[in-house]
Amino acid sequence: MGNEDRGCCDKCAKTFIMGINVLIILVGGAILAAGVYWQLSDTGYYKEIFNHDIFNIPIISIVIGSLLLLVGVCGFIGACCEVLFLLKVYMGFLIIIMLVQIILAVGCVAMKSTVEEMATNRTLILIGYYGGSEDEDGLITLTIDAVQENFDCCGVYGPSDWDENAIYSGNSSTPSSCCKTAYRSDASCGYASYQTNDKINDTGCKTSLLNWIESNLLYVGIVAGVICLLQMAILVHVLRLIVIIQDERYEVFESPAEKQS
User: Fold this and answer.
1) Would the pLDDT of 141 be above 90?
2) Contact, 215 vs 223, CB < 8 A?
3) Angle at 40 between CA 39 and CA 46, to 5 degrees
4) Rounded mean pLDDT, 99-115
5) DSSP letters for 74-141
6) Any long-range contacts for 247-255 (C-beta under 8 Å, 24+ apart)?
7) Which of 33, 90, 91 is nearest to 66 (CA)?
8) Exposure string (b/e) for 146-166, b if CB count within 10 Å is 16 or more?
9) Which residues 6+ apart lie within 8 Å of 208 measured at CB?
10) Residue 108 pLDDT more than 80?
11) 129 with 140: CB under 8 angstroms?
């Protein structure tokens, strides 16, 4: 049995694997490029936001992007050229990735408080940099303003966090991004003391972000479920293609006596 004798489902298995791995290559390349850009960037914002002794996002992005590229190329060439060794290596990668995902999921649950504490402390540090000389190109200011405006919040725990910033600590004022939506056009909104100013949001961004995450957990679960089903589908198609190729090669090398029997 040759390639032309294969059924529609068998041909689709090969096409499916090749198509999926083209997507994996593109995603891996994008993640790798972003990681390299963040790592080589001299902008203080990227260094402060994304670099950490343990959770160094640029390095993690480079590693993940490189692995995705390797897996994608391995799977594409293995399916396109029908190289059994590459297909088996690719299937091994898939199984390892699925196991790593399970470990990461358990780890995220177990280290939730640690990650939350790290993010909180990092944000408090950035509030101190807001509008200062450390804020190169004003990117920290733009980011914090965007978060406070989009989530209708102020500071990490509340407006009092802005006492950590040299610009606002003297008179207990806050940035205008802390103002409620209806008062953002008021130029004097943020200059009044937050202790008596009812025009600003008194909810901390930590609470607002956690509430937003909790309200979107259903969508996260749906995406995770789709990814798991897709991985299972890829694994089944790869296994099917391996069996097809092995059967074809067995028939080619089978002796005439074995065929007659």
Assistant:
1) no
2) no
3) 55
4) 80
5) HHHHHHHTT-HHHHHHHHHHHHHHHHHHHHHHHHHHHTHHHHHHHHHHHHHHHHHHTTSTTSGGGHHH
6) 247/1, 248/1, 248/2, 251/1
7) 33
8) eebbebebbbbebbbbbbbbe
9) 151, 152, 153
10) no
11) yes
Looking at residue 255, its pLDDT comes to 47
| Contact partners, residue 32, CB within 8 Å, separation at least 6 | 61, 62, 65, 66, 68, 69
The CB-side HSE value for 109 (13 A sphere, CA atoms) comes to 5
Q: State residue 48's pLDDT score.
A: 53
User: For 157-189, what is the HEC assignment?
Assistant: CCHHHHHHCCCCCCCCCCCHHHECHHHCCCCCH
* Structure tokens, 219: 């969508």
Residue type at 192? Answer: A
User: 200 by DSSP, 3-state: which?
Assistant: strand
DSSP 61: H
The answer to whether residue 73 scores a pLDDT higher than 90 is yes
Alpha-carbon distances, residue 230 vs 8, 17, 182, 244 (angstroms): 20, 11, 45, 21
